UniProtKB/TrEMBL annotation:
Protein known as: Ribonuclease P/MRP protein subunit POP5
GO BP annotations listed: tRNA 5'-leader removal
Gene3D superfamilies reported for this sequence: Ribonuclease P, Pop5 subunit
Cross-referenced Pfam families: RNase_P_Rpp14
Protein's organism: Ostreococcus lucimarinus (strain CCE9901)
Keyword Transcription regulation: no
Family membership noted in the UniProt record: Belongs to the eukaryotic/archaeal RNase P protein component 2 family.
GO CC annotations on file: multimeric ribonuclease P complex; nucleolus; ribonuclease MRP complex
Predominant cellular place of this UniProt entry's protein: nucleus
Record's function text: Component of ribonuclease P, a protein complex that generates mature tRNA molecules by cleaving their 5'-ends.
Keywords annotated in UniProt: Nucleus, tRNA processing
């Protein structure tokens, strides 16, 4: 029996208008947007190969950090498609893959690091209070741990 090998991409979404993502159906809409980007960049055959194992494991609306799982052989195609995306839900945004790894633990740790960095940036912008950061990080760390592993 052959083990299915995955790659986990930690993606950061920065909307140009500075507002956060809407919460409703964010994972599903993000998955559809990534599938469309793969199809646009690599055609039907590339999309058919890459989309089979593609899933959004975690997405945080406030910080714009998400974890995408894909097949190891198609990770470069998915990463390329994500970085060429120009918008999400009708709003212009920049997409950056900040981590690509093969283990759940590595993806979880990278995601928590990005969440921490984004939360501290939001504190600097005055959108989040400093006193709330530790509680948010603890809660989001637990959510990431359960979402990425399942």
């Amino acid at each position: 029996m052959v083990r299915f090998k995955n790659r986990y991409l930690v993606v950061e979404i920065a909307h140009n208008d500075g507002r956060a993502m809407e919460d409703a159906r964010k994972e599903r809409d993000l998955l559809d947007a990534i599938r469309d980007a793969v199809k646009e960049n690599f055609g039907d055959v590339g999309a058919g190969r890459a989309v089979a194992a593609l899933s959004v494991r975690y997405a945080d609306a406030m910080t714009g950090v998400c974890v995408v799982r894909c097949d190891r052989e198609r990770a470069r195609a998915v990463r390329g498609a994500v970085t060429t995306m120009e918008g999400f839900r009708g709003r212009r945004a920049a997409f950056a893959v900040t981590h690509c790894g093969g283990t759940v633990r590595g993806a979880r740790d990278a995601c928590v690091r990005r969440l921490s960095a984004r939360l501290h940036a939001l504190v600097a912008e005055g959108r989040v209070r400093e006193a709330d950061v530790e509680g948010i990080l603890e809660t989001q760390g637990k959510i990431v741990a359960t979402a990425v592993t399942n």
